[in-house]
Amino acid sequence: MMSAPLAERLRPRTIDDIVGQRHLLGEGKALRNIILSGELPNLIFYGPSGVGKTTLAGIIAKTTERYFVKLNGTTAGTADIRDVVAKLDTMLAPNGILLYLDEIQYFNKKQQQSLLEYIENGAITLIASTTENPYFYVYNAILSRSTVFEFKTVTPEDVIPAVQRAFDYMADHRHETYRIEDGVTETIARACGGDVRKAMNAVELCVLSAPFESASGTGERRAVTLESAKQLTQKSAMRYDRQGDEHYDILSAYQKSMRGSDANAALHYLARLLEAGDLPSACRRLMVCACEDVGLAFPMIIPIVKAAVDAALMVGLPEALHPLSAAVTLVCHSPKSNSANSAYFKALGDIKSGRGGDIPRHLQNAHYDGEDNPIKGQFYDYPHSYPNGWTKQQYLPDSLKNAVYYEYGDNKNEQAAKEYWDRIKGGT
Question: Most exposed: 54, 64, 121, 185, by fewest CB within 10 Å?
Fold first, then answer.
């Protein structure tokens, strides 16, 4: 019979055994006090995987002496809810049922509604967990009857003791001794990306792959090397779901770092995107940032970045890092201006508010003048027929003829353009 994974065998049994989450479970914290009170409300646990949500739900059930039922939103349905309800008022659940619904975001609205009657009358206490923002994915009626607690990614410092306990457990359980090189524990703790379950899996793999070596006085022992730990955890630190919150958080941080001219941060997020294989998103946000955030302060950056993006898409990963890292660094170090974007949204505001109007006659496409038109002809002044390629004429509709959307940025490029046009237009 196969043994359970190490993470399951070492699953915490008490609140104090849980790794991290001191902001929720430390002495005097709200969630800890709620659990110990024995009066349990409906709860929603929101946070990344492997940080203790399921473990805590089981501990709560034990602490409050509730009958514990676990369902997963990816596989369960309304029939499973009915089966849970059937256990009410039976010898199985004398103190009521604690239903733990993992990945509630995969339950549709109708399925979530099927829970309402039972959580409203207190027959079932619901603890739902989700890796996605519950305010986007959980039915409002359930949200209004629940308290949301956000679980945080566990820090490497919190994971280190858990990794050490895992090695001790493996040695005791397998009746073996280990020589663990310096840095192995810290490497696993860092590389797990805040997911304790990943850390436990890494410990188990390190032990199983470790060769035996002779040890004077103790016979054979396993040698767990730093190089082995690095190889087994090199991809573990990545938390990335192209459809999840983490995806949009990384993209947001990536673009905001470029906008904020922080090359170190922007390259960090670029590396996370490329390591996850998300080349299209890295290219798209880079192109957007060149146009939106650098803009008219350095307009030639647009074709430069476009060439870098084309090169990246042509060569693919991993070589795409070369043109993209150069382009990201260039965007960060370039002057910034959003003057064109701001002007556009001002114009859009007038359009959305209904301030449009007829296009001036002299700008319309040339066409036949009807007999009802007393003034024949278009009367468009061709700018190139005038000195400096400019002549004054109205371009906006009459209702907006004095509107000003674009204002020159204070960067060198736009100020040079302003000086030129002030001179040509004579300040008009």
Answer: 121
318 preceded by a cis bond (ω within 30 of 0)? yes
> Which DSSP helix (H) or strand (E) runs through 30?
helix 30-37
| 22 pLDDT higher than 60 | yes
Q: How many residues does the chain have?
A: 428
The residues near 60 (Cβ < 8 Å, ≥ 6 apart) are 35, 40, 66, 98, 127
Residue 231, SS3 per DSSP: helix
DSSP one-letter code for 359: P
Cα 306 from Cα 326, distance rounded (Å):
12
- CA–CA gap between residue 281 and residue 309 (Å, rounded): 11
| 395 closest CA partner among 346, 338, 355, 357 | 357
Helix axes 263-275, 279-289, angle to 10 degrees: 150
Res. 11: pLDDT tops 60: yes
Q: For residue range 139-184, list pLDDT tens digits in order.
A: 888 998 899 999 988 888 989 999 999 999 999 988 888 999 999 9
- The C-alpha atoms of residue 262 and residue 331 are separated, in whole angstroms, by 10
What is the Cα Rg of the chain in Å? 32
Cα of 151 vs its chain's centroid, Å? 15
User: 134: part of which helix (H) or strand (E)?
Assistant: helix 134-137
The residue whose two tokens read 């299209």 is 280
Our measurement of the distance from residue 195's CA atom to the centroid of its chain's CA atoms, rounded to an integer in Å, reads 16
Q: Three-state SS for 127?
A: strand
- Phi-psi category of residue 378: left, alpha or beta, with phi > 0 → left and psi -120 to 50 → alpha: alpha
Q: Tell me how crowded residue 85 is: count the other CB atoms within 10 A of its CB.
A: 17
- Cβ atoms of 53 and 47 within 8 Å: the answer is yes
| Helix, coil or strand: residue 305 | helix
Distances (CA, A) of 413 to 313, 337, 338: 31, 10, 13
How far, in Å, CA of 6 to CA of 206, rounded? 12
Residue given tokens 């459809």 in the structure block: 243
Contact residues for 24 (Cβ-Cβ < 8 A; gap 6+): 30, 31, 32, 149, 151
Q: Which residue has the higher pLDDT, 172 or 120?
A: 172
Do residues 275 and 311 touch, judged by C-beta distance below 8 A? no
Q: Which residue do the tokens 């929101």 mark?
A: 46
